[in-house]
Every structure is written in structure tokens, then in C-alpha cells.
């Protein structure tokens, strides 16, 4: 068990007469863990295990009906819907993660300058992040209104002809969701980059300046490498956040137009709570968990290898 | 000159970020049924009034939902921080043998998000008769391991001398936690607490499923019910959003330094 020690190893193994006190320490320590462990076991560990069990059954909101083995999984994997919703979730990752990271980096670099009204500017960029998903979805639902919404009004000002049906046109709906989500969460990305920028020692920049490195060279050779750890953390954080997309879709598009914006989580939600098929929905959840675990494993490998 | 232009650009960008919120508040203050469309609508301030606010507050339970969100947020934050701090203390200061095992079990909670265990979580809440009860939201909010992780890091930084001095003064382990570790990690607890409160306040999916009555509803999950009510005009919907947003905005403006710090700390280390 000693190899599991997360940090500073306790003093060497106790001698025999101390055995009882070792047990006492063990029990006392666990006593401190119990307040956290009880809800953790009931509302995290147990649901994970129970979900695996439920996924092997036909299960309604009334409870278990019958054991079906892996039939639920077969049903999901044979159904093209699953792949299309999975693709939608990853499509959103492809749109949202790069845009929000780049935009967050740009905003952080702006804020990091010596500006007037710096506090106001920083607050403005961060403020949307503290609003709830329902508020931001309501706002953007109406900002994107084709006839009376300010977004189209603004585009018309710049000479665009014809109104864009942002939320009902399959070519634009994902961009609309991405714009709303980027606006909402970019402040978080920015703040983490700001913290990263402050960790880069200023004398590196001084030295580079003396060596005659231009702004772009300083950015490429000092800023970017200095931010690599925080960038990696952020990329994985955003991938997972994007995969969990639900609220914006539920409120702004209802999965539409047609089925275009149905995501994994909404698929689970509809199967479980609208169609009352808990067993099938559990199997979907387990598949989703497996995807999450795979991403975590990749993250672990990447962040571990380079940063030691 | 270039610096001045850059500064102007940054301010303009900031205004663009605020635009959606400004628009929401403007629409909510316009008479019911009118729209904010042209520039003229923006600058005509004579017709602004708070009738919509009176109407929304009178005809819906929105104030009740705000109260519920606040109660749930405070309960979740306070209890989670207390429990996390106790666990962090054990991991950091008590050299028990199974701590590696327990640590891994708890940290595994970072791997799977609530969204992925919705169905069995609902089943658990159903069995414990928690559906439509505010504890259905509070209790799962206590399982976030990030607080344990962060507070442990801070307790690792509590100097050994402090601990030994307290031990010489006769403190047992509980005293070490209460009198030494707790006060010394106060600022970390504030940061983590702010992070937890924001998570709880903005939690949408789980309350949306587990709360069924208007009486126990929370703000984030209750708001979408206005959409299914087709009789509501844009002005009233924006008023409801503004009522939900304004407390958050005010608190943010008052506490922004702590909030930004709390979020960046929890984000970087988590």
C-alpha cells in the first residue's frame, strides 16, 4: 500500500507494541474522511456502479423490469442515431474549444498590457461567465432572432442582404451556439491565461529585448512556451465542457432544426426522461463515461510526459 | 498614438461584451410589447419604466426561486467546504496507512461528470425520496473532490513548526484542525467557496430534472419554464432574465477581485 502514498511519506514502520496506536490513528483519520465520504459514496460512487447494473436491464421509472444482458448496448451501437449524436458532440468540441482558447488568449494578452480602464475591460470580459446557462441562452435566443434581433440588425448595417435564420438554419445553428458559448465562457479561459502570464518571469522579456527580439519573436519564444502547461489544462477542460453541452441546446434550439443539434447528453436526457427508458439511457451514460475516461487517460499521458 | 488606438480598441471590445447584457436590461425596461430595434429605440429613454418587473414578480414565483438558489448555494458551499477541509486535513497531516487508497478513490470523482450519471443519480434520489426536495441538489453538490484537492495543497504548506507547537500545547488532532489548519487556510477556503457557489448557482441540468414543483424550483432551472409559456412577450422574458442576472452582476461587481482569484486558483490547480 505504501506505493500509493500521494505525498510526504509518514515516518518509518512502527514497532510491534505500537500496533494498537497505528490502528487508532487509522480509525481516527478515517473519521475525518467520513463526512466527505458518505455523500460521495451515495451520490457518486453508488450511481456509477448502479448505472452499470441498470444498463444491463430494461428499466423504467417504476424500477427494474427484466435482465437483458448487453442487449441495450447492442441496440445503441446498431442505431445510427448514436453515432450522429456522438458526432454532434464532437463537432461542437471542434468548433468551440479552439475558438474559445484562442479568443481567451487574445483577451488575456490585451488585458496584460498597461491599459487605461483595465479593471473595467477585464470585468466586462469576465462578467458573462458568472451568469447561468439559462440567462445566457435566453439572451442569445433573442439576440439571434431573425427579424427583430440585434445580430441581424448589425449585419444589415454592414450591408448584408437577407436575414440569417441563426437558430433554424442548419448551416448557422452550430455557429450560433458557439458564439453564445464563447461569449459566456471565454472570461474563464482568459483568467487562467492571465494567471499563467503572471508566472512568466519578466526578466526573460528584458533579456530578449536586449538581444533585439521583436514583439512576435518574444511572443513565440517566451510567452507561448511559458503558457504551455496552462494551455494543456485548458484544452482538456474545454473539451470536456463542450462534450457536456446541454443547457444551451435545450433552451435555444431544442435539438433542432430537425435533429441537427441533439448532443450526447440531450440524447441521454430524452431517452431517460422523455421516453422513460432508464436502462437504455444508463447504457448510453456508460458509453459516455468510457469516452470521458479515455479523454482523461490521454490528458494524463500528455500532461505527465512533458511536465514530469 | 498607436497605444491610444489600441486602448480605444480594447474599450470598444469590452463594450461589445457588455452589449448583450445592456440590451437585455434595456428591453426589460421598455413598455410591454415594444421592441428595441433601431438606434432611436436605444436613445429614447422617456418610456423606460419598471412595470415589467412588477408584473413578472407578481405573476411568477421568481423571487421564491431566487431565494431557493441562494439557500442551496450557501448550504452547498458551507457544508462542502467544511467536509472537504476535514478530509484535506486527514490527507495532509495524519500519516495513516490507507490514505493513498482513499485519496485515489476521492480524486476519481474528477473523472466522471454528473452529466454522465444522471439516470442512476435520479434513481438514487428517487429511492431516498429526495425528488422535488432542495436536498436533492445540495447533497450531490457535496461530492466535488476539487475542494479536498486544493485545501490539501494549502494544508501541505502549513509549516511543521506550527503543528508541533500546537501538539506541545496539548492539542489533539481535532484541535490541530480547528485551531491551526482552519485559520491558516482561510483565504483558500474563501476562494474555493466562491467557486463552489458559482457552480451551485449556475447548476442547470440536475435541478431541471430533480425539482418538479414551482415552489422548490431554483432560478437557473425555473427560467426556461417562461419559454413554454407562449403568452409571454420578449420584454417580459428579458425582465425575468434580468431579475435572474442582476443579483449575480451586483455581487460580481462588489467581490470581483476575490471571484477572479477564486476561479483562477480553482481552475489552474484543478
From TrEMBL, chain A:
Alphabetic keyword roster: Cell membrane, Membrane, Transmembrane, Transmembrane helix, Transport
InterPro entries the UniProt entry points to: ABC_transporter_permease, MetI-like, MetI-like_sf
Main location: membrane
A Gene Ontology BP annotation from the UniProt entry: transmembrane transport
CDD domains tied to this protein: TM_PBP2 (cd06261)
Compartment(s) of residence: Cell membrane
GO cellular component: plasma membrane
Classification via PANTHER family: ABC TRANSPORTER PERMEASE PROTEIN (PTHR30193), INNER MEMBRANE ABC TRANSPORTER PERMEASE PROTEIN YCJO (PTHR30193:SF37)
Homology family: Belongs to the binding-protein-dependent transport system permease family.
Name of the protein this chain belongs to: Sugar ABC transporter permease
UniProtKB/TrEMBL annotation, chain B:
Transmembrane segments: 65-89, 101-122, 134-155, 176-199, 232-255
One Pfam family hit: BPD_transp_1
Alphabetical list of InterPro entries matching this protein: MetI-like, MetI-like_sf
Domain of life: Bacteria
GO biological process terms held by the UniProt record: transmembrane transport
The keyword Nucleus belongs to this UniProt entry's keyword annotation: no
Membrane topology: Multi-pass membrane protein
Intracellular or extracellular location(s): Cell membrane
Protein keywords: Cell membrane, Membrane, Transmembrane, Transmembrane helix, Transport
Family annotation (Gene3D superfamilies): MetI-like
Main subcellular location of this protein, as a coarse class: membrane
The keyword Transmembrane helix appears for this protein: yes
Residue ranges of domain ABC transmembrane type-1 in the record: 66-255
GO-annotated cellular components: plasma membrane
Sequence similarity: Belongs to the binding-protein-dependent transport system permease family.
Protein name per UniProt: Carbohydrate ABC transporter permease
Amino acid at each position: 500500500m505504501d506505493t500509493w502514498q500521494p505525498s510526504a511519506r509518514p515516518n518509518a514502520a512502527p514497532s510491534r507494541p505500537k500496533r494498537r496506536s497505528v490502528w487508532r490513528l487509522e480509525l481516527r483519520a478515517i473519521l475525518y474522511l467520513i463526512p466527505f465520504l458518505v455523500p460521495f459514496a451515495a451520490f457518486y460512487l453508488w450511481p456509477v456502479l448502479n448505472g452499470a447494473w441498470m444498463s444491463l436491464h430494461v428499466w423504467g421509472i417504476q424500477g427494474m423490469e427484466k435482465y437483458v444482458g448487453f442487449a441495450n448496448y447492442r441496440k445503441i451501437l446498431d442505431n445510427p442515431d448514436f453515432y450522429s449524436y456522438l458526432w454532434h458532440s464532437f463537432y461542437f468540441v471542434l468548433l468551440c474549444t479552439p475558438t474559445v482558447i484562442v479568443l481567451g488568449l487574445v483577451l488575456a494578452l490585451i488585458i496584460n498590457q498597461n491599459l487605461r480602464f483595465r479593471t473595467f475591460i477585464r470585468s466586462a470580459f469576465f462578467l458573462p461567465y458568472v451568469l447561468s446557462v439559462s440567462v445566457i441562452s435566453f439572451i442569445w435566443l433573442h439576440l439571434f432572432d431573425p427579424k427583430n434581433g440585434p445580430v441581424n440588425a448589425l449585419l444589415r448595417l454592414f450591408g448584408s442582404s437577407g436575414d440569417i435564420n441563426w437558430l433554424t438554419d442548419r448551416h448557422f445553428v452550430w455557429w450560433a451556439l458557439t458564439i453564445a458559448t464563447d461569449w459566456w465562457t471565454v472570461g474563464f479561459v482568459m483568467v487562467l491565461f492571465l494567471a499563467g502570464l503572471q508566472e512568466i518571469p519578466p526578466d526573460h522579456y528584458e533579456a530578449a529585448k536586449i538581444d533585439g527580439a521583436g514583439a512576435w519573436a518574444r511572443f513565440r519564444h517566451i510567452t507561448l512556451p511559458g503558457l504551455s502547461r496552462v494551455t494543456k489544462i485548458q484544452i482538456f477542460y474545454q473539451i470536456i465542457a463542450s462534450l457536456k453541452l446541454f443547457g444551451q441546446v435545450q433552451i435555444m434550439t431544442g435539438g433542432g432544426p430537425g435533429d441537427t443539434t441533439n448532443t450526447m447528453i440531450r440524447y441521454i436526457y430524452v431517452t431517460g426522461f422523455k421516453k422513460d427508458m432508464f436502462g437504455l439511457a444508463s447504457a448510453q451514460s456508460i458509453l459516455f463515461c468510457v469516452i470521458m475516461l479515455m479523454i482523461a487517460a490521454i490528458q494524463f499521458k500528455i500532461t505527465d510526459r512533458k511536465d514530469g | 498614438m498607436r497605444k491610444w488606438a489600441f486602448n480605444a480598441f480594447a474599450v470598444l471590445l469590452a463594450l461589445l461584451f457588455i452589449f448583450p447584457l445592456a440590451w437585455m436590461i434595456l428591453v426589460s425596461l421598455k413598455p410591454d410589447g415594444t421592441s428595441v430595434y433601431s438606434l432611436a429605440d436605444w436613445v429614447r429613454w422617456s418610456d423606460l419604466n419598471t412595470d415589467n418587473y412588477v408584473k413578472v414578480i407578481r405573476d411568477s414565483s421568481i423571487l421564491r426561486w431566487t431565494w431557493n438558489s441562494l439557500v442551496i448555494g450557501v448550504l452547498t458551499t458551507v457544508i462542502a467546504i467544511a467536509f472537504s477541509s476535514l478530509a484535506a486535513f486527514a490527507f495532509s497531516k495524519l500519516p495513516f496507512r490507507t490514505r493513498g487508497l482513499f485519496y485515489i478513490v476521492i480524486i476519481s470523482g474528477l473523472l466522471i461528470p454528473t452529466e454522465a450519471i444522471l439516470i442512476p443519480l435520479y434513481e438514487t434520489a428517487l429511492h431516498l425520496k429526495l425528488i422535488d426536495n432542495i436536498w436533492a441538489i445540495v447533497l450531490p453538490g457535496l461530492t466535488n473532490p476539487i475542494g479536498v484537492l486544493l485545501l490539501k495543497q494549502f494544508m501541505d504548506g502549513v509549516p511543521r513548526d506550527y503543528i508541533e507547537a500546537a501538539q506541545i500545547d496539548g492539542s489533539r488532532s481535532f484541535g490541530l484542525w480547528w485551531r491551526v489548519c482552519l485559520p491558516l487556510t482561510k483565504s483558500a477556503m474563501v476562494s474555493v467557496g466562491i467557486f463552489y457557489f458559482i457552480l451551485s448557482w449556475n447548476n442547470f441540468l440536475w435541478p431541471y430534472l430533480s425539482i418538479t414543483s414551482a415552489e422548490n424550483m431554483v432560478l437557473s432551472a425555473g427560467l426556461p419554464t417562461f419559454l413554454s409559456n407562449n403568452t409571454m412577450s420578449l420584454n417580459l422574458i428579458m425582465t425575468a432574465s434580468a431579475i435572474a442576472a442582476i443579483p449575480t452582476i451586483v455581487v460580481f461587481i462588489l467581490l470581483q477581485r476575490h471571484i477572479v482569484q477564486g476561479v483562477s486558483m480553482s481552475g489552474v490547480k484543478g
